[in-house]
Amino acid sequence: MTQTLIRNGRIVTAVDDYRADILLDDGQIAAIGKQLDVGPDTRVIDAVGLLVLPGGVDVHTHLDNTFGDSTTADDYESGTRAAAFGGTTTIIDFAFQGKEDSPLDAIARTQAKASVGASIDYGFHVILTHVDETVLGDMKHAIRHEGVSSFKMFMAYPGTVMVDDAAIFQAMRLVGEHGGMVALHAENGNVIELLIREALAQGHTSPRYHALTRPAILEGEATHRGIKLAELANAPVYFVHLSAKEALKHVIEARDLGIPVFAETCPHYLFFDESVYDSDDFSVAKHVMTPPLRDKQSQDALWTALKTDDLQLISTDHCPFCMKEGHMGRVHQKEHGRHDFSKIPNGAPGIETRMTVIYDGGVRSKRITLNRFVELTATAPAKLFGLFPRKGTIAVGSDADIVLFDPEGTQTISAHSHHSNVDYSLFEGKHVHGVVKKVFSRGELIVDGEQWLGRPGRGQFQVRGEVGGF
Ligand code: URP
Ligand code: ZN
Ligand code: ZN
Ligand code: ZN
What we know:
- Helix 4 packs across helix 7.
- The strands form three sheets. Strands 1, 2, 3, 4, 5, 16, 17, 18 and 19 form a nine-stranded mixed beta sheet that branches.
- The protein has helices at 76-85, 103-117, 133-146, 165-178, 189-201, 208-212, 216-233, 245-256, 267-271, 296-308, 354-364, 370-384; strands at residues 4-12, 17-25, 28-33, 43-46, 51-54, 56-58, 66-67, 70-71, 88-96, 121-127, 150-154, 181-185, 237-239, 261-265, 313-314, 402-412, 431-441, 444-448, 451-452.
- The chain is of the alpha/beta class.
- Strand 18 and strand 19 (451-452) form a beta hairpin.
- The site of one zinc ion has 4 residues, from loops.
- Residues 185, 240-241, 290 line the site of one zinc ion.
Protein backbone atom coordinates (compact mmCIF):
# COMPACT_ATOMS: atom_id res chain seq x y z
CA MET A 1 0.00 0.00 0.00
CA THR A 2 1.20 3.55 -0.68
CA GLN A 3 2.70 5.49 2.14
CA THR A 4 0.81 8.67 2.95
CA LEU A 5 2.09 11.76 4.68
CA ILE A 6 -0.54 14.06 6.20
CA ARG A 7 1.14 17.39 6.54
CA ASN A 8 0.40 20.57 8.53
CA GLY A 9 -2.73 19.35 10.27
CA ARG A 10 -3.84 19.97 13.83
CA ILE A 11 -3.79 16.59 15.55
CA VAL A 12 -6.41 16.21 18.24
CA THR A 13 -6.81 13.20 20.50
CA ALA A 14 -8.59 12.79 23.83
CA VAL A 15 -5.60 14.47 25.50
CA ASP A 16 -3.43 16.13 22.81
CA ASP A 17 -3.78 19.12 20.55
CA TYR A 18 -0.71 19.99 18.43
CA ARG A 19 0.51 20.54 14.89
CA ALA A 20 2.60 17.81 13.30
CA ASP A 21 2.92 15.54 10.29
CA ILE A 22 1.73 11.94 10.34
CA LEU A 23 3.16 9.18 8.23
CA LEU A 24 0.81 6.30 7.41
CA ASP A 25 2.46 3.08 6.32
CA ASP A 26 1.26 -0.47 6.01
CA GLY A 27 -2.12 0.35 7.54
CA GLN A 28 -0.68 1.89 10.67
CA ILE A 29 0.59 5.21 11.94
CA ALA A 30 4.33 4.84 11.37
CA ALA A 31 5.58 8.21 12.60
CA ILE A 32 4.44 11.54 13.96
CA GLY A 33 6.76 14.53 13.91
CA LYS A 34 7.66 17.94 12.63
CA GLN A 35 8.60 18.19 8.92
CA LEU A 36 8.91 14.44 8.42
CA ASP A 37 11.15 13.50 5.51
CA VAL A 38 9.64 11.19 2.92
CA GLY A 39 10.67 9.73 -0.42
CA PRO A 40 9.21 10.64 -3.83
CA ASP A 41 6.74 7.73 -3.81
CA THR A 42 4.90 8.93 -0.73
CA ARG A 43 1.53 10.55 -1.32
CA VAL A 44 1.49 13.90 0.47
CA ILE A 45 -1.78 15.43 1.68
CA ASP A 46 -1.87 18.96 2.96
CA ALA A 47 -4.15 19.26 5.97
CA VAL A 48 -3.60 22.93 6.68
CA GLY A 49 -6.67 24.35 8.44
CA LEU A 50 -8.02 20.87 9.16
CA LEU A 51 -8.35 18.84 12.33
CA VAL A 52 -6.70 15.43 12.20
CA LEU A 53 -8.88 13.17 14.33
CA PRO A 54 -8.94 9.48 15.12
CA GLY A 55 -11.69 7.74 13.16
CA GLY A 56 -14.94 7.56 15.07
CA VAL A 57 -15.89 4.38 16.92
CA ASP A 58 -19.64 3.71 17.08
CA VAL A 59 -20.43 0.82 19.41
CA HIS A 60 -24.19 0.70 18.87
CA THR A 61 -25.46 0.14 15.33
CA HIS A 62 -28.09 -2.12 13.79
CA LEU A 63 -27.14 -3.07 10.23
CA ASP A 64 -29.20 -5.76 8.57
CA ASN A 65 -30.87 -6.41 11.93
CA THR A 66 -34.34 -7.94 11.96
CA PHE A 67 -36.89 -7.15 14.66
CA GLY A 68 -40.14 -9.05 14.21
CA ASP A 69 -41.07 -8.62 10.52
CA SER A 70 -38.93 -5.53 9.98
CA THR A 71 -35.34 -5.40 8.81
CA THR A 72 -33.29 -2.24 9.13
CA ALA A 73 -32.93 -0.23 5.95
CA ASP A 74 -29.13 -0.34 5.94
CA ASP A 75 -27.15 -3.50 5.40
CA TYR A 76 -23.42 -3.76 6.06
CA GLU A 77 -22.62 -2.26 2.68
CA SER A 78 -24.77 0.88 2.83
CA GLY A 79 -24.46 1.31 6.59
CA THR A 80 -20.68 1.20 6.76
CA ARG A 81 -20.41 3.51 3.73
CA ALA A 82 -22.70 5.99 5.49
CA ALA A 83 -20.62 5.62 8.66
CA ALA A 84 -17.42 6.35 6.75
CA PHE A 85 -18.85 9.50 5.15
CA GLY A 86 -19.69 10.61 8.66
CA GLY A 87 -16.16 10.05 9.95
CA THR A 88 -16.70 6.71 11.68
CA THR A 89 -14.19 3.97 10.88
CA THR A 90 -15.16 1.23 13.33
CA ILE A 91 -18.56 -0.05 14.42
CA ILE A 92 -19.76 -2.69 16.83
CA ASP A 93 -23.01 -4.16 15.59
CA PHE A 94 -25.10 -7.08 16.85
CA ALA A 95 -25.13 -10.83 16.33
CA PHE A 96 -28.61 -12.03 17.20
CA GLN A 97 -29.07 -15.33 19.01
CA GLY A 98 -32.31 -16.83 17.66
CA LYS A 99 -34.63 -18.97 19.75
CA GLU A 100 -32.99 -22.21 18.72
CA ASP A 101 -29.38 -21.23 18.34
CA SER A 102 -26.33 -20.40 20.33
CA PRO A 103 -24.12 -17.32 20.58
CA LEU A 104 -21.45 -18.98 18.43
CA ASP A 105 -23.98 -19.71 15.65
CA ALA A 106 -25.12 -16.10 15.85
CA ILE A 107 -21.54 -14.84 15.50
CA ALA A 108 -20.83 -17.09 12.51
CA ARG A 109 -24.03 -16.09 10.74
CA THR A 110 -23.46 -12.38 11.26
CA GLN A 111 -19.81 -12.68 10.33
CA ALA A 112 -20.81 -14.19 6.97
CA LYS A 113 -22.84 -11.06 6.13
CA ALA A 114 -20.49 -8.46 7.57
CA SER A 115 -17.36 -9.90 5.96
CA VAL A 116 -18.74 -9.37 2.46
CA GLY A 117 -20.54 -6.08 3.08
CA ALA A 118 -18.49 -4.00 5.49
CA SER A 119 -16.15 -1.36 4.13
CA ILE A 120 -14.92 -0.29 7.59
CA ASP A 121 -13.78 -2.39 10.54
CA TYR A 122 -16.36 -4.01 12.75
CA GLY A 123 -17.06 -6.18 15.75
CA PHE A 124 -20.16 -7.64 17.38
CA HIS A 125 -22.01 -7.77 20.64
CA VAL A 126 -24.13 -10.90 20.88
CA ILE A 127 -27.80 -10.29 21.68
CA LEU A 128 -28.69 -13.03 24.15
CA THR A 129 -32.32 -14.13 24.03
CA HIS A 130 -31.95 -17.04 26.42
CA VAL A 131 -29.34 -18.35 28.80
CA ASP A 132 -28.57 -21.95 29.73
CA GLU A 133 -25.43 -24.02 30.33
CA THR A 134 -24.65 -24.30 26.62
CA VAL A 135 -25.07 -20.57 26.15
CA LEU A 136 -22.82 -19.83 29.11
CA GLY A 137 -20.18 -22.17 27.67
CA ASP A 138 -20.44 -20.42 24.31
CA MET A 139 -20.09 -17.03 25.95
CA LYS A 140 -16.87 -18.08 27.61
CA HIS A 141 -15.59 -19.39 24.29
CA ALA A 142 -16.64 -16.20 22.50
CA ILE A 143 -14.74 -14.03 24.97
CA ARG A 144 -11.60 -16.16 24.95
CA HIS A 145 -11.38 -17.33 21.37
CA GLU A 146 -13.67 -15.27 19.14
CA GLY A 147 -12.88 -11.73 20.24
CA VAL A 148 -16.52 -11.12 21.12
CA SER A 149 -16.62 -10.01 24.72
CA SER A 150 -19.87 -8.06 25.11
CA PHE A 151 -23.45 -9.30 25.24
CA LYS A 152 -26.63 -7.26 24.96
CA MET A 153 -29.69 -8.24 26.94
CA PHE A 154 -33.15 -6.70 26.85
CA MET A 155 -35.19 -5.89 29.94
CA ALA A 156 -37.98 -4.84 27.54
CA TYR A 157 -40.02 -6.44 24.73
CA PRO A 158 -41.61 -9.41 26.52
CA GLY A 159 -42.47 -12.33 24.27
CA THR A 160 -39.67 -11.55 21.83
CA VAL A 161 -36.27 -10.61 23.19
CA MET A 162 -36.85 -9.85 26.87
CA VAL A 163 -34.97 -12.02 29.33
CA ASP A 164 -35.66 -12.29 33.03
CA ASP A 165 -33.49 -11.03 35.87
CA ALA A 166 -32.10 -14.48 36.61
CA ALA A 167 -30.84 -14.83 33.03
CA ILE A 168 -29.22 -11.40 33.23
CA PHE A 169 -27.63 -12.27 36.54
CA GLN A 170 -26.26 -15.58 35.21
CA ALA A 171 -24.75 -13.86 32.17
CA MET A 172 -23.26 -11.13 34.33
CA ARG A 173 -21.68 -13.62 36.68
CA LEU A 174 -20.01 -15.37 33.77
CA VAL A 175 -18.69 -12.23 32.07
CA GLY A 176 -17.51 -10.87 35.40
CA GLU A 177 -15.27 -13.89 35.74
CA HIS A 178 -13.96 -13.88 32.17
CA GLY A 179 -13.38 -10.26 31.21
CA GLY A 180 -16.60 -9.59 29.34
CA MET A 181 -19.51 -7.22 29.87
CA VAL A 182 -23.28 -7.23 29.62
CA ALA A 183 -24.92 -4.27 27.89
CA LEU A 184 -28.47 -3.69 29.04
CA HIS A 185 -31.49 -2.22 27.33
CA ALA A 186 -33.06 -0.98 30.54
CA GLU A 187 -36.81 -0.51 30.57
CA ASN A 188 -39.43 -2.38 32.58
CA GLY A 189 -40.88 -4.39 29.70
CA ASN A 190 -43.81 -5.99 31.51
CA VAL A 191 -45.30 -2.74 32.77
CA ILE A 192 -44.74 -1.07 29.40
CA GLU A 193 -46.56 -3.95 27.72
CA LEU A 194 -49.54 -3.40 30.01
CA LEU A 195 -49.58 0.34 29.28
CA ILE A 196 -49.45 -0.36 25.53
CA ARG A 197 -52.39 -2.76 25.71
CA GLU A 198 -54.41 -0.29 27.78
CA ALA A 199 -53.68 2.57 25.36
CA LEU A 200 -54.70 0.52 22.33
CA ALA A 201 -57.87 -0.67 24.10
CA GLN A 202 -58.78 3.00 24.58
CA GLY A 203 -58.33 3.64 20.86
CA HIS A 204 -55.02 5.49 21.22
CA THR A 205 -53.20 4.34 18.10
CA SER A 206 -51.07 7.31 16.97
CA PRO A 207 -47.26 7.30 17.33
CA ARG A 208 -47.26 9.77 20.24
CA TYR A 209 -48.52 6.89 22.41
CA HIS A 210 -45.23 5.10 21.86
CA ALA A 211 -43.70 7.72 24.14
CA LEU A 212 -46.62 7.94 26.55
CA THR A 213 -46.50 4.20 27.22
CA ARG A 214 -42.76 4.16 27.95
CA PRO A 215 -42.39 6.59 30.87
CA ALA A 216 -38.95 7.59 32.10
CA ILE A 217 -39.56 6.17 35.55
CA LEU A 218 -39.59 2.68 34.03
CA GLU A 219 -36.17 3.28 32.50
CA GLY A 220 -35.03 4.49 35.92
CA GLU A 221 -36.39 1.38 37.64
CA ALA A 222 -34.75 -1.03 35.20
CA THR A 223 -31.45 0.83 35.33
CA HIS A 224 -31.39 0.60 39.11
CA ARG A 225 -32.28 -3.11 38.95
CA GLY A 226 -29.55 -3.75 36.38
CA ILE A 227 -26.98 -2.04 38.58
CA LYS A 228 -27.96 -4.13 41.59
CA LEU A 229 -27.72 -7.34 39.57
CA ALA A 230 -24.28 -6.35 38.33
CA GLU A 231 -23.16 -5.45 41.83
CA LEU A 232 -24.23 -8.85 43.11
CA ALA A 233 -22.61 -10.61 40.14
CA ASN A 234 -19.40 -8.64 40.64
CA ALA A 235 -19.38 -7.61 36.98
CA PRO A 236 -19.18 -4.37 35.03
CA VAL A 237 -22.39 -3.29 33.32
CA TYR A 238 -23.07 -0.99 30.38
CA PHE A 239 -26.34 0.78 29.70
CA VAL A 240 -27.19 1.40 26.07
CA HIS A 241 -29.14 4.44 24.87
CA LEU A 242 -29.56 6.08 28.27
CA SER A 243 -32.13 8.82 27.78
CA ALA A 244 -33.61 10.00 31.08
CA LYS A 245 -32.50 11.83 34.20
CA GLU A 246 -34.45 9.16 36.13
CA ALA A 247 -31.97 6.55 34.86
CA LEU A 248 -28.90 8.76 34.94
CA LYS A 249 -29.21 9.42 38.67
CA HIS A 250 -28.72 5.70 39.41
CA VAL A 251 -25.66 5.54 37.17
CA ILE A 252 -24.16 8.57 38.93
CA GLU A 253 -24.88 7.15 42.36
CA ALA A 254 -23.29 3.80 41.49
CA ARG A 255 -20.20 5.35 39.91
CA ASP A 256 -19.73 7.56 42.94
CA LEU A 257 -19.61 4.36 44.99
CA GLY A 258 -16.94 2.95 42.68
CA ILE A 259 -19.20 0.35 41.04
CA PRO A 260 -18.11 -0.29 37.42
CA VAL A 261 -21.20 1.10 35.71
CA PHE A 262 -20.91 2.66 32.25
CA ALA A 263 -23.44 4.27 29.95
CA GLU A 264 -23.83 5.81 26.54
CA THR A 265 -26.32 8.30 25.27
CA CYS A 266 -27.22 9.02 21.64
CA PRO A 267 -27.39 12.22 19.60
CA HIS A 268 -31.19 12.15 19.33
CA TYR A 269 -31.56 12.44 23.11
CA LEU A 270 -29.19 15.41 23.09
CA PHE A 271 -30.91 17.41 20.35
CA PHE A 272 -34.62 16.53 20.54
CA ASP A 273 -37.10 16.33 23.37
CA GLU A 274 -40.55 14.93 24.01
CA SER A 275 -42.28 17.99 22.53
CA VAL A 276 -41.94 16.36 19.07
CA TYR A 277 -44.68 13.96 20.19
CA ASP A 278 -47.22 16.79 20.63
CA SER A 279 -49.05 15.82 17.47
CA ASP A 280 -51.21 13.02 16.13
CA ASP A 281 -49.54 13.30 12.74
CA PHE A 282 -47.92 10.11 11.51
CA SER A 283 -44.66 11.95 10.78
CA VAL A 284 -44.04 11.57 14.51
CA ALA A 285 -43.11 7.95 13.65
CA LYS A 286 -39.67 9.27 12.66
CA HIS A 287 -39.07 9.72 16.37
CA VAL A 288 -40.40 6.36 17.42
CA MET A 289 -37.29 4.93 18.97
CA THR A 290 -36.74 3.22 22.28
CA PRO A 291 -36.40 4.75 24.78
CA PRO A 292 -38.43 7.68 23.47
CA LEU A 293 -37.28 11.30 23.61
CA ARG A 294 -37.48 12.75 27.10
CA ASP A 295 -38.03 16.10 28.83
CA LYS A 296 -35.78 19.15 28.59
CA GLN A 297 -34.35 18.54 32.06
CA SER A 298 -33.16 15.12 30.95
CA GLN A 299 -31.50 16.65 27.93
CA ASP A 300 -29.63 19.16 30.10
CA ALA A 301 -28.68 16.42 32.55
CA LEU A 302 -27.25 14.28 29.72
CA TRP A 303 -25.06 17.13 28.47
CA THR A 304 -23.79 17.78 31.98
CA ALA A 305 -23.08 14.07 32.48
CA LEU A 306 -21.07 13.94 29.26
CA LYS A 307 -18.89 16.72 30.64
CA THR A 308 -18.42 15.16 34.06
CA ASP A 309 -17.84 11.60 32.77
CA ASP A 310 -20.99 10.27 34.39
CA LEU A 311 -21.75 9.29 30.79
CA GLN A 312 -18.69 7.92 29.04
CA LEU A 313 -19.58 7.92 25.38
CA ILE A 314 -21.91 8.76 22.55
CA SER A 315 -23.02 6.13 20.09
CA THR A 316 -25.83 6.27 17.60
CA ASP A 317 -28.17 3.29 18.06
CA HIS A 318 -28.44 3.63 14.28
CA CYS A 319 -31.57 1.57 13.67
CA PRO A 320 -32.99 2.91 10.41
CA PHE A 321 -36.47 2.11 9.18
CA CYS A 322 -37.89 3.94 6.17
CA MET A 323 -40.96 6.13 6.43
CA LYS A 324 -42.17 4.93 3.02
CA GLU A 325 -43.08 1.29 2.53
CA GLY A 326 -41.06 -0.36 -0.24
CA HIS A 327 -38.24 2.21 -0.32
CA MET A 328 -35.04 0.35 -1.36
CA GLY A 329 -37.11 -2.83 -1.36
CA ARG A 330 -37.74 -2.66 2.38
CA VAL A 331 -41.17 -3.64 3.73
CA HIS A 332 -42.70 -3.54 7.22
CA GLN A 333 -41.11 -0.18 7.84
CA LYS A 334 -42.60 2.77 9.79
CA GLU A 335 -45.78 2.82 7.72
CA HIS A 336 -46.53 -0.66 9.04
CA GLY A 337 -47.74 0.96 12.26
CA ARG A 338 -49.88 3.75 10.81
CA HIS A 339 -52.97 2.43 12.60
CA ASP A 340 -51.24 0.91 15.61
CA PHE A 341 -48.22 2.62 17.16
CA SER A 342 -47.05 -0.66 18.68
CA LYS A 343 -46.39 -1.98 15.16
CA ILE A 344 -44.05 0.88 14.20
CA PRO A 345 -40.56 -0.60 14.10
CA ASN A 346 -38.54 1.14 16.81
CA GLY A 347 -35.41 3.03 15.88
CA ALA A 348 -33.95 6.01 14.10
CA PRO A 349 -30.93 6.62 11.86
CA GLY A 350 -27.80 8.46 12.98
CA ILE A 351 -24.64 6.64 11.88
CA GLU A 352 -23.62 9.35 9.42
CA THR A 353 -24.43 12.47 11.43
CA ARG A 354 -22.97 11.67 14.86
CA MET A 355 -19.58 13.34 14.51
CA THR A 356 -20.85 16.48 12.85
CA VAL A 357 -23.86 17.12 15.07
CA ILE A 358 -21.84 16.51 18.24
CA TYR A 359 -19.06 18.75 16.95
CA ASP A 360 -21.52 21.48 16.01
CA GLY A 361 -23.89 21.20 18.96
CA GLY A 362 -21.27 20.12 21.50
CA VAL A 363 -17.91 21.69 20.75
CA ARG A 364 -18.97 24.83 18.89
CA SER A 365 -21.79 25.41 21.35
CA LYS A 366 -19.21 25.12 24.15
CA ARG A 367 -20.95 22.26 25.92
CA ILE A 368 -17.88 20.01 25.63
CA THR A 369 -14.25 20.58 24.70
CA LEU A 370 -12.66 19.38 21.47
CA ASN A 371 -10.63 16.76 23.40
CA ARG A 372 -13.75 15.51 25.11
CA PHE A 373 -15.48 15.28 21.72
CA VAL A 374 -12.74 12.90 20.54
CA GLU A 375 -12.92 10.97 23.78
CA LEU A 376 -16.71 10.53 23.61
CA THR A 377 -16.85 9.55 19.95
CA ALA A 378 -13.66 7.50 19.54
CA THR A 379 -11.32 6.94 22.47
CA ALA A 380 -13.72 5.95 25.24
CA PRO A 381 -15.74 3.53 23.09
CA ALA A 382 -12.50 1.92 21.90
CA LYS A 383 -11.20 1.59 25.47
CA LEU A 384 -14.41 0.32 26.98
CA PHE A 385 -14.96 -2.31 24.31
CA GLY A 386 -11.45 -3.70 23.97
CA LEU A 387 -10.31 -1.95 20.78
CA PHE A 388 -7.78 0.48 22.26
CA PRO A 389 -5.02 1.44 21.36
CA ARG A 390 -5.46 -0.15 17.94
CA LYS A 391 -8.51 2.07 17.49
CA GLY A 392 -9.67 5.33 19.04
CA THR A 393 -6.50 7.39 19.08
CA ILE A 394 -3.66 8.79 17.01
CA ALA A 395 -0.41 7.22 18.13
CA VAL A 396 2.54 5.44 16.55
CA GLY A 397 1.52 1.83 16.02
CA SER A 398 -2.23 2.48 16.08
CA ASP A 399 -4.28 1.65 13.01
CA ALA A 400 -4.20 4.52 10.54
CA ASP A 401 -7.92 5.30 10.91
CA ILE A 402 -7.91 9.04 10.46
CA VAL A 403 -10.43 11.74 9.68
CA LEU A 404 -9.52 15.10 8.20
CA PHE A 405 -12.22 17.38 9.51
CA ASP A 406 -12.88 20.97 8.49
CA PRO A 407 -14.10 22.76 11.61
CA GLU A 408 -15.11 25.86 9.65
CA GLY A 409 -16.84 24.08 6.78
CA THR A 410 -20.62 24.10 6.76
CA GLN A 411 -23.28 21.76 5.45
CA THR A 412 -27.01 21.28 5.55
CA ILE A 413 -27.99 17.78 6.60
CA SER A 414 -30.51 16.05 4.37
CA ALA A 415 -31.70 12.57 3.44
CA HIS A 416 -31.28 13.71 -0.18
CA SER A 417 -27.53 13.86 0.22
CA HIS A 418 -26.76 11.26 2.87
CA HIS A 419 -25.37 7.83 2.03
CA SER A 420 -27.65 5.64 4.10
CA ASN A 421 -30.54 3.78 2.44
CA VAL A 422 -33.04 5.27 4.85
CA ASP A 423 -35.45 7.88 3.44
CA TYR A 424 -35.30 10.46 6.20
CA SER A 425 -32.94 12.18 8.61
CA LEU A 426 -33.84 13.35 12.09
CA PHE A 427 -31.66 16.37 11.31
CA GLU A 428 -33.24 17.25 7.95
CA GLY A 429 -32.46 20.87 7.04
CA LYS A 430 -30.13 21.44 9.99
CA HIS A 431 -27.26 23.78 9.14
CA VAL A 432 -24.10 22.64 10.87
CA HIS A 433 -20.46 23.62 11.08
CA GLY A 434 -17.97 20.80 10.66
CA VAL A 435 -17.39 18.76 7.53
CA VAL A 436 -15.63 15.43 7.09
CA LYS A 437 -13.17 15.98 4.23
CA LYS A 438 -11.16 12.78 4.01
CA VAL A 439 -11.31 9.45 5.78
CA PHE A 440 -8.55 6.86 6.01
CA SER A 441 -9.22 3.33 7.18
CA ARG A 442 -6.04 1.40 7.97
CA GLY A 443 -4.12 3.87 5.80
CA GLU A 444 -6.42 3.56 2.79
CA LEU A 445 -8.23 6.70 1.64
CA ILE A 446 -11.88 5.61 1.54
CA VAL A 447 -13.68 8.97 1.53
CA ASP A 448 -12.36 11.93 -0.43
CA GLY A 449 -14.88 14.75 -0.27
CA GLU A 450 -17.96 13.40 -2.00
CA GLN A 451 -16.02 10.58 -3.61
CA TRP A 452 -16.40 7.04 -2.32
CA LEU A 453 -13.19 5.05 -2.63
CA GLY A 454 -14.02 2.27 -0.18
CA ARG A 455 -15.37 -1.12 -1.20
CA PRO A 456 -17.53 -3.71 0.46
CA GLY A 457 -15.58 -6.53 2.04
CA ARG A 458 -12.49 -4.48 2.87
CA GLY A 459 -13.62 -4.03 6.50
CA GLN A 460 -11.93 -6.36 8.97
CA PHE A 461 -13.44 -8.12 11.94
CA GLN A 462 -11.91 -6.81 15.14
CA VAL A 463 -10.91 -9.35 17.72
CA ARG A 464 -11.59 -7.52 20.96
CA GLY A 465 -9.79 -7.95 24.23
CA GLU A 466 -11.05 -7.50 27.76
CA VAL A 467 -13.92 -5.03 28.08
CA GLY A 468 -15.33 -2.85 30.81
CA GLY A 469 -11.95 -2.26 32.36
CA PHE A 470 -11.64 1.49 32.41
O1 URP B 1 -35.56 1.91 19.14
C1 URP B 1 -34.51 1.32 19.16
N1 URP B 1 -33.57 1.69 19.98
N2 URP B 1 -34.32 0.28 18.34
C2 URP B 1 -33.20 -0.50 18.28
C3 URP B 1 -33.19 -1.63 19.23
C4 URP B 1 -32.70 -1.21 20.56
O2 URP B 1 -33.45 -1.31 21.51
O3 URP B 1 -31.57 -0.76 20.68
ZN1 ZN C 1 -32.12 -1.17 23.05
ZN1 ZN D 1 -30.11 -0.38 19.61
ZN1 ZN E 1 -23.38 28.93 10.00
